[in-house]
Amino acid sequence: MPKNRSLRKLLPASKGSIIQPPQSGSSIKQRSNVSLACTECQKKKSKCSGTIPCTRCITEKCDCIYNPLGDRRSKAYIAELLSFHAALCRIVTTLRSGNSDEISWLIWEMQIQQTDQEAIRYLTEGHQMNPVL
Length: 133
Prior knowledge:
This protein is mainly α. The chain has helices at residues 39-44, 55-60, 75-97, 100-112, 116-124.
């Protein structure tokens, strides 16, 4: 940038001039922000259209999945994450320090659940993992 370059002087607008905002039918497009991107767009750190499926997943022919818990900063996501962490700690404690009956009981409880989601719910709700004697 040249040293002797001066900036032009700004003048106030004339009294009769009024700046009009663009009309609704104008060709100026506003960029829409999507509050949550699908998992594939999050992995690739690319702009997600927010539709189901999003345009990127359609062109890449990949699964377009949105996290059901929503934004990773939300309270529900953090609470769910803490619940999973507590369940994992209980499982590790039982497996490391439990006797064979307690470990067998834990495995049996996991096997009798109908679905994986029910097994996860069983663990995250903090059910007693020790056999009732």
